[in-house]
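Please, structure for the following, as tokens.
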Amino acid sequence: MRGGFAKNVLWLLSGNGLKFALQAAYFTLIARSLGPDKYGAFLAGVAITAVLSPFVGLGTSNLIVRNVARDPDLFRESWGNGLLVTFTTGVLGVGLVLAVRHWIPSGIGSTVLLLIAVADLVFGRITDLCGFAFGALERFGTTAHINVWISLSRVVGLSALVAIVPHPTVEAWAAAYLATAVATTFGSISWAFWTLSLPMIGLRRLFHELGEGIYFSIGLSAQSVYNDIDKTMLAQLGSLQATGIYGAAYRVIDVSTVPLRSILSAANPGSFRAGSRGIAESLAFMRPLMHKALMYSACAAAGMIVCAPILPHVLGPAYQETATALRWLAVLPVLRSVHLFLADALTGAGHQRMRSIVQVFIALVNILINIWIIPLYSWRGAAWSSIACDALLGVVLGTAAFQLTKAERMTIEITQEAV
């Protein structure tokens, strides 16, 4: 990796690594304090907002990176449009969560759902947008700081809650979760206003790009569905205890993919620049990064399989089955080292629509499998469904990339022959 890109990866890796270490700390606090049942209710609420979260902003965070990578003068308009759309759609998202609360598993209270929705869909998404704004200008050091703030504030807030209230309820946890989200957002947006160009609303550009932004949202939402809907479905079709066990193991998987996501985030501007010359260039840019990611993921999977028995000792005896769940899920980082990089190669080359269609297809397959398998096998069924869908996603995206590259070469050959 070249110097500048390697520096960006290291910034994001250190920031994301510290972020997830802090997440592990507050995750342990919540899990041990609430127990599997109540933790499962909290986790199911977070999973519900995670499915809606990508529609907040309608892809404007991705458009900031894409636009600035190709024309830095577009930053102010992209930044201003992103703030406007993110706040507006975030408020609408909270309203939608409340509107469908009657179809939510009964163990998740309306107050908990409201607090989590406001934290994640309004304040959390604005904080994320600030990170993307700095990343678009390749100031990944600041993006890393924002990532750390998010988790550090939660550790401080939740630790204070435990110190004040010896046995906090799920509602108390959700209230602390919201309070820390508000604090982080005001800090992030103040820093962005102080150090970046002031935002500017450009309605003409906003309406012009809205269709493409929606495809980004659809793809990200589909990704959230096949990553997170199993937890909500497990709460509905299985039990909250099974949700807590499965969710605890899945959290370790999320931590293990930190290096993958750090590389992808640092690669975004370069991927868009390479992709402006076609899918072949975008794939060529991504290929060496994918190889490095695969080597890391294989080592991470082996480490999780060996170290899985430690997890119940950290979380408590009620989470004994998390060791087995983690061993089942350990293959996911390897599969994601393939499909995440293929997906970003398609996006970089302007094929976000195709990427979104594929991801929606996988999300539907995941839901159908879960409806059948979770009532039969509880969290084991959810794990098998996740593995199958991640593998299928890699195969379909790989096929799509191959066909697009083939079509692109044929077009170039025909053009050259005509000349």
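The chain has 14 helices and no strands. The first helix runs from residue 3 to 52.
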